Structure formats: structure tokens, C-alpha cells
Amino acid sequence: MHWDGHAGLTLIIFSILLAAFGYNLNVLFLLAIALVVSFVPDFDLDSKYFDHRGRSHSGGVAIIVGLVFGSVMFYVKGLTWGLLGFFGGFGGYLSHLLGDLFTYRKFPILWPFTNKEISLGMFKSEDYNGVFWWGGWICFIICFLATKGILQSLISNLQ
């Protein structure tokens, strides 16, 4: 997937998960971290030193990224922000891996537990980026409106 597909998938996943908490500053901060971190695994695209979709595309690295973000935020703002940093970093990284898992190219997503490379082989990385991008924004807007009670008000006014 490309950057827009990864951003859209992250919006879909986090909008649905966070709708249960309602949207507030903490939730929007968590979503922002996840969106930024969802681009991080592709740092190796033009690298001479790292293979794209090598170990950088693994759950082990997702945990490390979550711990780094969580530690920095804990140091700066305390426990609540530390947890937001961890879940934003870990979840954003994991959403990127999930997006790549749908494509044909295999990678070691379960490293360090196993080096076996897997993929679901459902589509090419360039095929559904626009669908995920627009789907993510639609999902975010619907979840935001629903948690604020605006969607229910609009629906009741239509009846």
C-alpha cells in the first residue's frame, strides 16, 4: 500500500476503536500519533542498508516503536500520555503492517518469533489506496458525528 492507503486504513481502525471513548483531545492525540507512525515502516523504501519489508515490517519493531513513543510521552506528560504514546505508536505501526499484509509481497510480520514470511495476497499494493483513503475519512467523520450526538440528531430530524 502507499501512504494514502495506510493513512486511510489507520483512520478506519482507530475511528472505530475510539468511537467507544468519544472524541476528545486525548483521543485525537492518539489518532494523530497513529497516523504519523503508520508511515514509519516505509522508511526503508529507498535505503541502501535495509530491505523493504524486511524485519522493519514486524510486530517486534511495532512493540519497540510503541515503547519509544510511550516512554517519551510518559517522561514529558505522565502516565496517561505515556499510554497514549504507546498505543498510538504500536497501533499506528501495526495498522501499517495490517495494510501490507493484504498485498501479495510476503514479509516477516511475526518476527522475532519466526522468520516465516507471509501475506494474504488479496491485492497489489497500488490497487486500493484511494478506497482506503476515502473510506478512512468517511469512517472518521461518521464516528465523530456519532460520538458527538450530531448523527443521531440529523437522523431524527429526517423522520
TrEMBL record:
One Pfam family name is YdjM
* Sections of the chain in a coiled coil: none
Instruction: Provide this UniProt record's keywords sorted from A to Z.
Output: Membrane, Transmembrane, Transmembrane helix
InterPro entries given in the database record: YdjM-like
Q: Does the keyword Transmembrane apply?
A: yes
* Membrane-spanning residues: 12-37, 57-76, 83-104, 131-151
Q: Does the keyword Transmembrane helix apply?
A: yes
Q: What is this protein called?
A: Metal-dependent hydrolase
